[in-house]
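Person: Please work through this fold.
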Amino acid sequence: MGLSDFTDGLMRGIGMGDPVIRLGVTGLSRAGKTVFITSLVANLMDRGRMTALRAAADGSIRSAWLQPQPDDTVPRFEFERYLGALTGPEPYWPDGTRHISQLRLSLRVQPKGMLGGLRGQQTVHLDIVDYPGEWLLDLRLMERSYDEWSEEVLARMAGRPGADAYLAALNEVDLSAKFSESTAQRLAASYTEHLNIAREAGFSDCTPGRFILPGEMAGSPALTFAPMPPFEGKSPLRREFARRYDAYKSRIVKPFFRNHFAKIDRQVVLADVLGAIHAGPQALEDLRRAMADILSAFNPGRTGWLAQLLGLRRVDRILFAATKADHLHHSQHQRLTRIVTALLREARDRADFAGARTEAIAIAALRATTEDVIRQDGEELPAVRGTLMDGRKAAFYPGELPEDPAALLTPARQGETEWLDGDYAIMNFRPAADTARHGDGPPHIRLDRAAEFLIGDRL
């Protein structure tokens, strides 16, 4: 821990300096992290749509403004560019998260009540840290050896798209032969291709995460390995892969934990649950395992003042948010919430037992649809209407989610390959145009409730 970290912890510990809330935002691919952060910041700056955030509704938040971020070595979250993309005259979805970034939003707050009047106004800094969920899954590799990781990956590979090509490439390799860099690169490329295909098909647990989002590490030896089966005797290739796996953990995963992840004290985990349901039972079960692994990477629970003073924070509030609720009529939102609650039951119980407060909710950080009713075969169906990615207007009924989440989770756990009693469709909509209103941020569904849970107690 550096001197600046110690000083920051010391100031917080003895009540000096402005309070800081470090909010981590993560999720897996296409969960909507960029949209969530952009809409959250815009709605905290113009709070007309934030009625469920008490400090906004009662006027405790007097003003909000962006400030330079405190970490000079972390890229700034490009809020202005993303907001322009989402709310411009021809709105579009911006590119997703490919690296860590940060943004500081400062809130001038006048607490209510007698003590609030005595204290006067204060500034609360909200430091939002955005990072790919694929990187977070890597934290569990710290507890696994190369042999354990390989066994686990190869065991779950059966049935996943793209797996056959990698397994075929692996079978062609003489494991007892002298180490060849070209062979290592060929296997690593084949395994990476499998991960990308699986992710596109809706699977969530695709490690190592930097294989999908390598950044400046692309082509490095630390990203040139792949899982291999046990082998009797000497295997130079397998030995080198194990060494590179350990280097990946020590040179890439561990610094991420030390420099960024370990400093977070509030966390939101976004999940595209509807996308996983549409992809099928195997994708839904894979999402359940991935989200449980994500939570296990946290150190949930409350800490005393001494641990905070030393910078040894724990996440004490974790929000699990099922995104894209605007793809459903409001009559199904509670069913989606129950599904994500059941999906994360094991993970939530673990965090609750450790002392952290957790919540599950269905949200749309940016509402892209309006509600409608369509008639089909003499039946009225609750639908949503919006603009498709090709510019056409359409009303959409995705199918009815079950009342009991077990109707989805049980066949997913049992390894079914398709839903027997339902057909859950999905459609991609553009951001809605002409939604701006003076004093209001972008339209959303329950983003204010999410903000109340995550930061409301600190305002």
